[in-house]
Task: structure prediction
Amino acid sequence: MSSLTLPCYLCGAAAIIDGLCASCYDKDHPLIEVSSPVSILSCKRCGSIKVPGGWKKISDKDLEFEELTMLQMEIALQNEINILAKGVTLSLEEMKKLDRVSQILIIASGQSHEKLPPHDEEYPVEIRFSYGTCTTCSMMSGGYYEAILQIRAEGRLLTDNEKEHLTQRVKDMTIARYKTDDKAFITTIHDDKYGLDFYIGSEHLCKFIADEFERQYLAERKENYSLVGEDKAGNKKYRITILIKLPQFSIGDFVSIEAEPCQIINMARNALTCFGLRRRERFSINPKSPRWRTLEFIAPISTRRKFTVVTHVYGQSVILMDDLTYESTEVDASLFDSDIETNTIVHGVIIEDELYLLPDQSEIDTNNV
Result:
């Protein structure tokens, strides 16, 4: 005995689910809901858009205008589209654009019921753009800052290379915090012969950068709060100034540790990597080590000299010529850390009238800022 299939109560076709055919069920159970028009308030300076609770930042600054507009619409529609079924995928097509109005087509793909095949639904939506200034850009243009990061060096001036490197690091760390901190921006960078001053919108960001520099460069740190006014509730407002003072020495410089002349190979995470010029070996030292108290600055990397290997006969001293003065010097072959070849360049330093050969300088030149 064959079973009867009831007709769809809307169109008369064979019913499949809840008295409806597949087509009528899909129509009665849409994949999404979305209203039209949708208004988008965008920051004219950075491209951020206003969303419930604040501004949504666009971290990619290299987008073309059309790419930025599409991304803004995708972000805005996340708050406007109500997805009604599981596993729905969405895509957008821009159909028409007139100045500040875009006509788009939202294509929703999915199943309205697990027993029905996937299908596509199209929803035309009008997007209306308006422009303003986000909170972050407003603070930036007004010169707002919560903290000042000062970078100096003990007993010396910052080199141009150090200034360039440190400035780039501050910028990179600021960009990395941009999406999570509304005040992650630099208002002003002041550069003079004494060092660098960064006027930073976020106190949290300033402290984070100071933490990194203090560990990375074994720097001395001082903090000072100054009263700058009161808020609307009468609470006092303070601004912090953080001084990061780099040590007198840096990568490539020469120091004395336990009376042995050494060259600094690297500085990282509370430790110095050095090369002992007498013992010809590499070692690490940190501020907690008793040996640290014996550390004394000898000379900067600028005292490093280049020498050319003039002659080398097995079993005899090696003759070097100073590339600057053209003076010749005899050096014991045992002091070389690699094979000796004539006409090659080696580096050395003269400390208290004694010539010390230096290890391969490529690592130092790479690490040096």
Observations:
- The helical segments are 22-28, 65-78, 135-141, 160-176, 203-216, 362-367.
